[in-house]
């Protein structure tokens, strides 16, 4: 009894020929090796590409978060948390403060705010906006992002905050230095 390639009794031990030239197991193996080598070379090229081809990073502001105390007169006083972000010359600051509580439920976008900051120790700049989340009655007022323009190296520190809620203007003056320090863009 003769056993063929497949080990099936009664078959010839002569391997069958491929039906078309270049389509046998040897050709398939060669194609697989070639494709694998090409992929490895492509990956090696990508891995060693110069860093200049990477996506540019947006500018960073330091510190990202700071606190400052505000006195808002008869409306209260407390600490505000300022959170800054930068994209080129455009910057935003979000403000959350326990100095002012919402008298009633406030809908999103109903608080108009202006944050005045000391700029580079001498001048001032303002960040403005009317973006705010919905705020429940008695909740701390949050506003922002407030938008402004900065230049590389600008140093900004919270000086005052003016908030308009339901037509009522509340002006708050900083009573402490910004901690851990001014925002540097």
Chain-wise SSE layout:
Layout: H1 25-47, E1 65-71, E2 77-87, E3 90-101, E4 111-119, E5 123-129, E6 140-149, E7 155-165, E8 168-174, E9 183-184
Antiparallel strand pairs: 1-2, 1-8, 2-3, 3-6, 4-5, 4-7, 7-8, 7-9
Give an overview in words.
Strands 1, 2, 3, 4, 5, 6, 7, 8 and 9 form a 9-stranded antiparallel beta sheet that branches. Residues 1-57 have low confidence and may be disordered. The chain is mainly beta and 185 residues long. It starts with 24 loop residues before the first helix and ends with a strand. It has one helix at 25-47, and strands at 65-71, 77-87, 90-101, 111-119, 123-129, 140-149, 155-165, 168-174, 183-184.
The rounded distance between the terminal residues' Cα atoms is 87 Å
What proportion of the residues is helical, as a percent range?
10-25%
Main β-sheet, in a few words? 9 strands, antiparallel
| Shape verdict | globular
SS-based structural class?
Answer: mainly beta
Strand content: 35-45%
How many beta-strand segments? Answer: 9
The low-confidence runs, each spanning 5 or more residues with pLDDT under 50, are 1-57
Number of helices: 1
Radius of gyration: 34 Å
Mean pLDDT: 77
Give helix and strand order, one letter per element, not per position.
HEEEEEEEEE
Summed up:
The chain has 185 residues and is mostly beta strands. It is built from one helix and nine strands, in the order H-E-E-E-E-E-E-E-E-E. The longest helix is centred in the N-terminal third of the chain and has 23 residues, at 25-47.
